[in-house]
Structure formats: C-alpha cells, structure tokens
Amino acid sequence: MQPLQKSTLVDWFATPRGEYVLGWEQAQVGHAVEDAFGFSAMQVGLPEIDFLAENRISYRFRAGLNKGCDLYADPVHLPIASSSVDLVVLPHVLEFSDNPHQILREAERVLVPEGHLVVSGFNPISLWGLKRALGRRRRRDYPWCGDFISLLRLRDWLKLLGFELNGGKFGCYAPPFGKARSLHAWRFMESAGDRWWPIAGGTYVVRAIKRVQGMRLVTPNWKQATARLKVLSPAVARREPRAAARSRVPPPALRLIIGGRENGAERG
What we know:
Layout: H1 7-13, H2 16-33, E1 40-44, E2 59-64, E3 71-72, E4 85-91, H3 100-110, E5 111-122, H4 127-134, H5 151-160, E6 163-171, H6 180-185, H7 189-196, E7 203-210, H8 222-248, E8 254-258, E9 261-267
Parallel strand pairs: 1-2, 1-4, 2-3, 4-5
Antiparallel strand pairs: 5-7, 6-7, 8-9
C-alpha cells in the first residue's frame, strides 16, 4: 500500500489551483468541526495542514504514515482503542488509498457513539472530474492520480457502517484553470453553482455522526399480570367471609322429645 498523503499533494496545495481548493475546504471543515466536543480529536493525513484549528477539543493529534504525524500508523490498522476518539477528520484520504473501505471501518471503530466524522474529497461529477477523465497522460500527477469518489457512493459506504449524514456542501465550481487570474475571474460560478448545479462542485466536505442502535429491554407484561390478579381477587374475597361466617354460627340446639312432645329444655 502506498502512503496515503505524499508530499506531492501538499505541493499541489501550494499551486493556484490548490490554494483555491484549500481555502474553500479549510473554511468548510472549520464550520464542521467547531461544534464537536469531547476529549480527543484525530486528523488522518496531511500533517502540514491543520484542519482541526477551529475545534475546541484540548487533545488533538494527527495520525498517518507521513513525516510530521504525531502518531505514525497506517490508517488501515490504527493502534487506537475502540470507541475512544470523539472527532475524526479525513482530508482527501479516501481517494488516494488502495483500501478506502477499511479506512472508514477503522474510523467507525475508534469513534465513540455519537462521534463526528468529517470527510473531504474531489467530486467526479464536476469539471474537475471531467479534466481527470480527459487528461489520461497526467494521471500520475496530483490530484488527478486519485480515484475520485462521488458523494452518493460515499453516502452508501457510510450508511452501511451506521453513520448518518448531518451536513455537507459542494464547492469550487470554477473550471480547474492553472492561473490564479483565471480562477479569480470565474469566482462568480460559486454563487451560480450553488443555485443552478449544486452537486457539480469540484470538491465537497461532509459531516456524519456515528449512530449506535440501542438495545430494547424485554420485561414481563405487568399490566396483564395485574389484570389477572384483579379478576381472581373478588372470588377469594367472597370465599373468605363465608368460611368465617360458618366458623361463627353456633351448633344447632338439641331438643328432647318425650312422648311425642318436645321438651323445651336444651342440652348444650
């Protein structure tokens, strides 16, 4: 497996195209992570760029196979305990990995229930995706060498892992010109793209929450049991007074009959 984030991608972010994309993504990721709370936050890859700057969690670290990471580890097999991280950010990690599914599974494993996951990626259904499809000779250059993942495809992967999307945005609608002046001249497409073709942005940032289905506690049906007791209780109450009444009635008196007449004397 090749390292997920090579220096060439960082170098590309220093070009006019890269600065255009990075400026938009840092603003969107900042909005996505600013209200995530907890004890620990992790950024996977791109240690040179701080995507957790707007987050207020005290313990923040970067993991990956790149020089400068706080935790040198393969994102496919993170040496982190399960359910121990509150926020995970994956900036352009999936499209440059040979096993993006396993990276998402690891992110789901280390996240606490209701933890947040933020993912950024290039959109294949855009002018940027079209440039990648047509420029086969330059597919060895960043970012065109990556496998662009559509948001619909990513949503299906996240849904299978129990994530629920609760925010996201497309951006960078301008054509991928190489000069800063051309990119600036086409800035008007940002507002036009949001209105007329919102799913055709060159890049996207989405946020998802890890949902854990709760267990249902099965208890005895106390209502039915109480109903049965109420049905039986009157019968018991009726029998008890009868038995008590019989015990209180004195035995019948014995009368002596002499010569066909009753003698009024009683024998106890």
